[in-house]
């Protein structure tokens, strides 16, 4: 169609009457700095944008998952690097728990708001500290001991039916740094490493808990004290890595949910956690709840909340570390099922598989982290919400399956 | 708490065992380029991040709403600028409808995927073209004419009871470029401007429709043809600017909703729209539906969908322009109410008001666009969803009120 005679041609070269432009004067805004550029930092970016919060990321490397907000690339173990980054924001928080205590404490000493702070983070950084802290709070944990040599470990094994779980105090994640042992010689190499280290370290040994399933309780807490809880969820691990999450935990009795909530609050308050705290729990065969692990940051067991809760763990973490009032944490539908995408397809690229998944499951919320697939690596997740647990589970698994070979 | 004797001090200076790093090899990813850096571009960023889509913005200026994704600042009327930007992405789409046809057509000629394309966009860029296109499709519109002088306008007024609405063909938005007239002399200045323009342009004159309320029907359409619809919504304008949106339109009879849907689909398909199309409608006092305006992009009447629909208009727009399968568009709760934040508080900054709004309404989803407040300017919006329309409306208005004086 051509314009009829007597009508102007589209005045393409004229500027629009009033192009909206932002005035150059500064607006007071809240600025969050995230140390670490992984997918947890990445997933904080959408709620920051929605809430009008400026988010900056100190990434370990170029091209990481959170790169769109990465204003700096640098070493989080270097005090000057982290200090310079902290000066550009109102509060520093984390994608991971690896920032050294020395750096954290220097930040605090210089008046930087750090959430969670070093006093809390130490319990997430060192599993022996964690067990000590929880034991001091009276929170139910598996039997445990800190052992420095084979004799100590053997004594624990002898007291616990000849089997136990040994964990390195630091550096473990996703099942790494964890072994089931039946003899002290099973962790000979770890004891040797402790000796070489020359710092007189110890390994954590725990009773081998006979559990029915694993649960996770997420809590958020503001520095000024307000807390919120999401419903306790069931997590399914495969090879030590979170594979599936069911929210709320199916068939959880009210007593169980209340116990998990009480434990979550007790830890958040007792250890002075700020931001999101994830408490991994065992539901034992004899109906007890024991604390397995802690994470003081958004956690894989809470990814369902992006699509399944009024306030996601990522939005809540931002609100909490900024000491903003926390949001409602009710579920948006009776069930949410989250399936991790691990490894990725080997015979196709993600962008070849994405259309297949979207076409097959139009209700599924597909989340990809911008990471290159590698065996066992978490590169995304899928969440489906709805009224019928079986249906929701089927659809979430079906969508996720397109990203595997 | 200090570590007990015999335990290593936290080994803060050691790198974590396996810091996850993204391999430097390139991953195949989908890349969307958005021309224009306003809040519509801003609100495309969160779903792009969630879906693993790379989003780049060609912004008009520094510090605009979409700045976190602004890889370039430049003039969208300059062909070379837009071409260079287009080379960095897989598809070009828009935050506004102001990119000149000459630029759009040159992009297409050089093989750039442009959605919506120039053939469709012309109907959103020029209101007289729009009326011609809709009339040719047989879509119900108010009586209209293109008038080039006072005599032509007077003839239209005489035929329509002495009152009409006159609109400039281009450059109007949010009530600008629209006047209710009772005499040809009411738009004398506009006719004078047409004469000075020397291009033989015309003004659009339309019957003054007596309407019960305004509605909006949003549609998304992929280049390969798939379409989805959100439920028709009611929009409330104040001073020509969208103030409130109720989704779905309260009390909308099935017949009405079907009519709106049919009109939306007919326009999307008939004009070859790709991406999101917003059709603004009048529900007349005599139970007709007439098309008022079109927008070929995400639209204020669809902001509720971020929190209220399984797939938001922003996610759907990205999926549509990339020709990805479209997502489900059902409502997540029976009602969603969206209230615009216009102007902003004059006696406080936004970050002073944000905590008050969040504390008062923990269920409210507050969206701020990172723009400095200015009278009448859209700087954010609030959405609340729920079962009870009155309650949802009250809560959304209450939260939004904190951002006004």
From TrEMBL, chains A, B:
ATP binds at residues 127, 167, 206-209, 214, 292-293. Residues 131-322 form the ATP-grasp domain. GO terms for cellular component: cytosol. InterPro entries: ATP-grasp, ATP-grasp_carboxylate-amine, ATP_grasp_subdomain_1, PreATP-grasp_dom_sf, PurK, PurK_C, PurT/PurK_preATP-grasp, Rudment_hybrid_motif. Keywords: ATP-binding, Ligase, Nucleotide-binding, Purine biosynthesis. It comes from the Bacteria. PROSITE patterns: ATP_GRASP. One of its GO terms (biological process) is 'de novo' IMP biosynthetic process. Pathway: Purine metabolism; IMP biosynthesis via de novo pathway; 5-amino-1-(5-phospho-D-ribosyl)imidazole-4-carboxylate from 5-amino-1-(5-phospho-D-ribosyl)imidazole (N5-CAIR route): step 1/2. GO terms for molecular function: 5-(carboxyamino)imidazole ribonucleotide synthase activity; ATP binding; metal ion binding; phosphoribosylaminoimidazole carboxylase activity. Its EC number is 6.3.4.18. It catalyses: 5-amino-1-(5-phospho-beta-D-ribosyl)imidazole + hydrogencarbonate + ATP = 5-carboxyamino-1-(5-phospho-D-ribosyl)imidazole + ADP + phosphate + 2 H(+). Catalyzes the ATP-dependent conversion of 5-aminoimidazole ribonucleotide (AIR) and HCO(3)- to N5-carboxyaminoimidazole ribonucleotide (N5-CAIR). Belongs to the PurK/PurT family. Homodimer. This is N5-carboxyaminoimidazole ribonucleotide synthase. It comes from Cnuibacter physcomitrellae. The lineage of its organism: Bacteria, Bacillati, Actinomycetota, Actinomycetes, Micrococcales. The gene is purK.
């Amino acid at each position: 169609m051509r314009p009829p005679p007597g009508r102007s041609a589209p005045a393409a070269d004229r500027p629009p009457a009033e192009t909206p432009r932002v005035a150059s004067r500064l607006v007071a805004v809240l600025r969050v700095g995230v140390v670490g550029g992984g997918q947890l930092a990445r997933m904080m970016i959408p709620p920051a944008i929605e809430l009008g919060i400026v988010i900056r990321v100190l990434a370990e490397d170029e091209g990481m998952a959170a790169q769109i907000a990465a204003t700096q690339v640098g070493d989080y173990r270097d005090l000057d690097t982290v200090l310079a980054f902290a000066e550009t924001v109102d509060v520093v928080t984390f994608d991971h728990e690896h920032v050294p205590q020395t750096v954290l404490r220097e930040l605090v000493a210089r008046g930087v708001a750090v959430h969670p702070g070093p006093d809390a983070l130490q319990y997430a950084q060192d599993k022996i500290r964690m067990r000590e802290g929880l034991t001091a709070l009276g929170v139910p944990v598996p039997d445990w001991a800190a052992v420095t040599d084979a004799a100590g470990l053997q004594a624990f094994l002898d007291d616990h039916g000849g089997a136990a779980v040994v964990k390195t105090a630091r550096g473990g994640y996703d099942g790494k740094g964890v072994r089931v042992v039946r003899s002290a010689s099973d962790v000979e190499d770890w004891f040797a490493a402790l000796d070489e280290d020359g710092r007189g370290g110890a390994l954590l040994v725990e009773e081998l808990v006979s559990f029915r399933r694993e649960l996770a309780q997420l809590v958020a807490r503001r520095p000024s004290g307000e807390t919120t809880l999401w419903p306790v969820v069931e997590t399914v691990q495969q090879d030590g890595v979170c594979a599936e999450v069911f929210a709320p935990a199916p068939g959880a009795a009210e007593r169980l949910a209340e116990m998990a909530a009480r434990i979550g609050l007790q830890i958040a308050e007792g250890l002075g956690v700020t931001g999101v705290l994830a408490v991994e729990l065992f539901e034992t065969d004899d109906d007890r709840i024991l604390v397995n692990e802690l994470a003081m940051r958004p956690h894989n067991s809470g990814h369902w909340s992006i699509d399944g809760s009024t306030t996601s763990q990522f939005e809540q973490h931002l609100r909490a570390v900024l000491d903003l009032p926390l949001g409602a944490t009710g579920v948006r539908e009776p069930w949410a099922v989250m399936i991790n995408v691990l490894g990725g397809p080997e015979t196709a690229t993600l962008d070849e598989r994405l259309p297949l998944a979207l076409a097959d499951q139009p209700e599924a919320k597909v989340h990809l982290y911008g990471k290159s697939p590698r065996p066992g690596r978490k590169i995304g997740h899928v969440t489906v919400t709805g009224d019928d647990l079986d249906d929701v589970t089927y659809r979430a698994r079906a969508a996720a399956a397109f990203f595997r070979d």
